[in-house]
Amino acid sequence: MEGTYKHSYKAGENLPNALSVYNVGHQKCEPGYQWGAGVRNHYCIHHVISGNGYYEVNGEVYALSAGDTFILYPDTEVKYYADTEKPWEYAWVGFAGTDADFLIQATDFSKKLPLIYKGRLPKKEIQKQLETIYKLKGNDYESAVAMTGALYTLMSVFIHYAARRGTAKDSHMVYAEKACAYINTNYSYPITIEDVASYVGISRSHLFRSFQMYRQQSPKEYLVDFRIKKARHLLRETSLSVAAIAYSVGFENNLYFSKVFKSRMGVSPSDYRKES
How many helices (H) and strands (E) does the chain have? Predict the structure, then answer.
């Protein structure tokens, strides 16, 4: 059909673990064009730019149009197809990673209602961020990290509007999870809790309260624990020196790193490596 197209990109294997783009694209469908029924092994968000279509999941059929956004959950059978009279055009991003679950939980998406209708999100901003992810595509690690950064920005839009409406599970959860996502991405840099609070958009004291209520620990404790977790992995799986590992996980002082590591693990980094 004249005017239809599909531009898509599928990422390679070298993906960041915390959050990574699996695929991204933009499609103007033929009348009745259908995907599924089928199952994905990752999350996939679709934003309808124009036209109409239908999304079937969990025995429900949702009629969608421009401005609506729907999500495919991993390992959930779905089917979606374009209207025969006015077929839709949409952009999408598929993603996975250890951060994906709690990021989605902080949005208005749910398995019971896996979509957000028009008017509840800034559609131009959603479309713009999806376009940005696509423009950053590439099969090298630098491109993968850039796409992940743009994906975090997209997810922050969903989380922000859920928090504004008070429809997220809990505002403290939203702030804590957004902070965790930032820490998980930037732990290797000498970031401070002030940096984290600034990214989240709240004061340091507010961030502290959110962490205490949601994670029963302070943001500083989470940052240190995450760095030690990454250091343990490097000690087990690489031959990097202890000093190099300290710098790799965000500690600028090797002696301080060793002191913190021993206080958490009960042994020095060198002894931990020997025992692993």
Answer: 10, 10
Q: Is 22:10 a contact under the CB 8 Å cutoff?
A: yes
**83 pLDDT above the threshold of 90:** yes
| 24 and 93 Cβ atoms separated by less than 8 Å | yes
* Per-residue buried b or exposed e for 99-124, using 16+ beta carbons within 10 Å of the residue's own CB: bbeebbbbbbbeeeebbbeeebbebe
**What whole-number distance in Å separates Cα of residue 15 and Cα of residue 249?**
18
What does residue 82 show for φ and ψ, rounded to 5 degrees? Answer: -80, 150
Computed from CA positions of residues 135, 140, 142, 146, in that sequence, does the dihedral angle turn out positive or negative? positive
Tokens of 114: 């896996």
Q: Tell me the two tokens of residue 239.
A: 């031959």
In whole angstroms, what is the distance from residue 159 CA to residue 157 CA? 5
**Cis amide linkage into residue 66, ω under 30° from 0:** no
Per-residue pLDDT tens digits for 143-185: 888 898 899 889 988 988 887 766 545 667 778 878 888 898 8
- Strand (E) positions, the chain? 5-10, 20-28, 34-38, 43-50, 52-57, 60-65, 69-72, 78-82, 89-96, 115-116
Q: What is the C-alpha separation between 167 and 271, in angstroms, rounded?
A: 48
